[in-house]
């Protein structure tokens, strides 16, 4: 009796490092990373964030040091998030388009220090409204669409005026990409790229971010269900992406990341356009907390999570781990 042995043994290729490397379908590099930074007023200011251990808010003078490090590590893009002091927040979010606002000053400082580092800005009103919603409210508390878009246009143009390379509307108002694109074109900002947060879900994974920018208290238990997407939906994400592309988006974003890999994959497969993914604050907090408890191996799980984004079809990943990852990649 001859025993039946398999002719096909997938394990052959997995036996040695050389053949595993040879057949790897995806690879993570520093060029895939986008690094988000929370920016503070003042000088030599550095604050930690309780729900995001290892992430800090920094003032502009320290932000420019971060820029040097990103260039050194080969990370192509920084994303800035201003932490607006409470006393400049208003109902109408005027601070969002102040040419001397925190974001606008940060953009100028970054472009002056490291011209080749891409600078991306968040276009949404939540850091600037006293209620923490991404837009202007009517008397019932509903976030008004078209009135909000008018302010978003001013905000995006002020970022482009300051030198932003990419504006990223993260507000989920209808028609904002087209309106921003038209305004940028008519102001001569023909090179400003738009990264549309096209598939942005009403996610509970944003909690730590709202602590970081100080908008959670303002939101007072309110939610963003009337504009951000329902986690139940997938087809709707494709529709949002199609609209944003038709309106002039250069890139699209899926957010959050890990629970939405199916969306990343569907978007990339369907549209074949630059597709970014945001590993959000709550994902960071989960991986970090488990690692700090010794329950997970931080480097291993972070690298695995980012490779999984690439496998799903992401072209770049916005992650609070970007600097750590680029260092690990450099160490080999
Ligand atoms: C603001 C904005 C949010 C995030 C990025 N831009 C919060 C929100 O929509 O409430 C969340 C990012 C994160 O959790 O890391 N529009």
Automatic annotation (TrEMBL):
Enzyme Commission number(s) of this protein: 4.2.1.24
Q: Its pathway?
A: Porphyrin-containing compound metabolism; protoporphyrin-IX biosynthesis; coproporphyrinogen-III from 5-aminolevulinate: step 1/4
Which key words are in the record?
A: Heme biosynthesis, Lyase, Magnesium, Metal-binding, Porphyrin biosynthesis
**Entry-linked InterPro entries:** ALAD, ALAD_AS, Aldolase_TIM
Domain of life of the source: Bacteria
Q: Name one GO cellular component term.
A: cytosol
Return the CDD domains for the record: ALAD_PBGS_aspartate_rich
Q: Which residues form the active site?
A: 200, 255
Gene Ontology MF term list:
porphobilinogen synthase activity; zinc ion binding
Q: Which reaction does it catalyse?
A: 2 5-aminolevulinate = porphobilinogen + 2 H2O + H(+)
Keyword Lipid biosynthesis in the entry? The reply is: no
Q: Name one Pfam family in it.
A: ALAD
Q: Give binding positions for Mg(2+).
A: 240
- Please state which protein family the record places this protein in: Belongs to the ALAD family.
| Subunit structure, interactors included | Homooctamer.
Can you say what this protein is called?
A: Delta-aminolevulinic acid dehydratase
Q: Which gene encodes it?
A: hemB
């Amino acid at each position: 009796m001859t025993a039946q042995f398999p002719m096909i043994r997938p394990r052959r290729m997995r036996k040695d490092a050389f053949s595993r490397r040879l057949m790897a379908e995806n690879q993570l590099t520093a060029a895939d990373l986008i690094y988000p930074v929370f920016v503070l007023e003042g000088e030599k200011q550095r604050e930690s964030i309780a729900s995001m251990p290892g992430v800090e808010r920094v003032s502009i003078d320290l932000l420019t040091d971060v820029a040097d490090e990103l260039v050194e590590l080969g990370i192509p893009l920084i994303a800035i998030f201003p932490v607006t002091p409470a006393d400049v927040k208003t109902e109408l979010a005027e601070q969002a388009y102040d040419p001397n606002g925190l974001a606008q000053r940060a953009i100028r400082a970054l472009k002056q220090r490291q011209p080749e580092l891409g600078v991306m800005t968040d276009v949404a009103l939540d850091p600037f409204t006293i209620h923490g919603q991404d837009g202007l409210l009517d008397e019932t508390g509903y976030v008004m669409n078209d009135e909000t878009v008018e302010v978003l246009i001013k905000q995006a143009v002020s970022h482009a005026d300051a030198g932003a390379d990419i504006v990223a509307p993260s507000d989920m108002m209808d028609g904002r990409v087209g309106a921003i694109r038209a305004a940028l074109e008519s102001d001569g900002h023909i090179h400003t790229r738009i990264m549309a947060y096209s598939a942005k879900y009403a996610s509970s994974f944003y909690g730590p971010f709202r602590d970081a920018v100080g908008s959670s208290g303002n939101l007072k238990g309110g939610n963003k269900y009337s504009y951000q997407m329902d986690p139940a939906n997938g087809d709707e994400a494709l529709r949002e992406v199609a609209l944003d592309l038709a309106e002039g988006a250069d890139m699209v974003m899926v957010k959050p990341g890990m629970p939405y890999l199916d969306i990343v994959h569907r978007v990339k497969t369907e549209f074949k356009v630059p597709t970014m993914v945001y590993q959000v604050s709550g994902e960071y907090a989960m991986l970090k907390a488990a690692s700090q408890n010794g329950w997970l191996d931080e480097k291993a799980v972070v690298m695995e999570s980012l490779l999984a984004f690439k496998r799903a079809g992401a072209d770049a990943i916005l992650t609070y781990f970007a600097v750590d990852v680029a260092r690990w990649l450099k160490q080999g």
